[in-house]
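Design request, tokens follow.
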């Protein structure tokens, strides 16, 4: 099962087939961005957005469900018990000449699949998915000496948790965008006219998201007015901004999830972004598309990029990146990127998690350091 495609059903509208031709093949393609809805604002856009490597890593981790978070030499994330059931735990790790390994583990919650882990202001925030599928939002103090006692902030179906400017952002049971204060109060509904997936705030006003009703295409919304733009047609997944370059996957098939990696300069797009323009206006911008095929998952860490099954490339050679996950399934997949290390899952032939591995990109180690093995 591909864990970063989280919908129970995949919609593939016939009307999108023609749009897919705009991005087919490799090289540079001119794409028209359509104003899908209209709105009014006081001033024209004029936005410029550049993500630092740290901001890019945060966005990349969110797109793969943020399975881990760390502070100092403490790592928060999931292990599995003797029955293969997940539990959230706190792990103390050591890094040395022989690699990185866990020296101490403390359980926090059992039979819980913790996702979208983010540390902010001495708290660990996460989405809790129980074995019956029930979801909720929780937080836990990570202050020195604090007890491992999670606090439920939002006890209702939810997904896609992220944090910006001191507020929690997520989708609710009908996939509308909502926000909360850090203590779980002051719920606000920010986008309620459609189902959205993978929402990510680039600024306080600009939201990137996947539009389910529009063939799972990539959209940009100006939140103060609801002004909305389709900026990439087709089925788009895993969009990550590095500097001003936006990387994303366009997936061609419902079965097998065959995808190609694409790139565009978001600031070229934003320089033409005018929320005062007439509805249905359009303009062209360039999208580069890789000739290589890969599965629907990647993670970006500074100047290199990882596909699945231990395939990676320097970011400058992103068009050479490929993997066989779309064809043979996952044998390994990146779960978390940090400046100091990356975490991967190894899978057995049945697709079960077999072990979790650290990789240290700064040391350019040729192999992967085993962190622990699942029973």
């Amino acid at each position: 099962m591909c864990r970063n495609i989280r919908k129970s059903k995949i919609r593939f509208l016939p009307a999108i087939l023609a749009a897919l031709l705009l991005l087919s093949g490799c090289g540079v393609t001119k794409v028209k961005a359509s104003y899908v809805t209209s709105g009014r604002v006081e001033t024209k856009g004029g936005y410029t957005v550049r993500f630092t490597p740290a901001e890019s890593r945060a966005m990349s981790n969110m797109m793969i469900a943020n399975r881990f978070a760390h502070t100092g030499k403490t790592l928060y994330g999931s292990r599995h018990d003797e029955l293969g059931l997940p539990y959230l735990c706190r792990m103390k790790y050591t890094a040395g000449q022989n690699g990185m390994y866990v020296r101490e583990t403390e359980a926090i919650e059992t039979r819980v699949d913790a996702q979208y882990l983010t540390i902010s202001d001495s708290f660990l925030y996460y989405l809790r998915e129980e074995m019956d599928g029930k979801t909720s939002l929780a937080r836990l103090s990570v202050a020195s000496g604090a007890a491992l006692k999670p606090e439920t902030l939002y006890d209702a179906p939810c997904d896609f948790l992220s944090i910006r400017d001191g507020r929690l952002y997520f989708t609710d049971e009908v996939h509308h965008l909502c926000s909360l204060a850090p203590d779980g109060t002051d719920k606000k509904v920010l986008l309620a006219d459609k189902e959205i997936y993978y929402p990510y705030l680039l600024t306080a006003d600009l939201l990137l998201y996947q539009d389910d009703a529009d063939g799972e295409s990539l959209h940009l919304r100006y939140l103060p007015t609801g002004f909305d733009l389709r900026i990439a047609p087709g089925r788009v997944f895993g969009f990550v901004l590095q500097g001003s370059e936006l990387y994303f996957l366009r997936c061609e098939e419902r079965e097998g999830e065959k995808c190609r990696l694409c790139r565009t300069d978001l600031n070229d797009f934003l320089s033409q972004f005018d929320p005062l323009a007439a509805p249905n206006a359009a303009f062209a911008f360039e999208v580069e598309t890789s000739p290589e095929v890969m599965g629907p998952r990647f993670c970006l860490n500074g100047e290199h990029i990882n596909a699945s099954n231990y395939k990676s490339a320097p970011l400058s050679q992103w068009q050479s990146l490929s993997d066989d996950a779309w064809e043979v399934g996952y044998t390994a997949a990146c779960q978390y990127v940090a400046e100091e290390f990356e975490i991967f899952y190894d899978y057995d032939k049945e697709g079960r998690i077999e072990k979790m591995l650290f990789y240290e990109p700064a040391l350019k180690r040729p192999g992967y350091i085993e962190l622990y093995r699942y029973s």
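Comment from the thread starter after seeing the answer: thanks! The chain has a mean pLDDT of 82.
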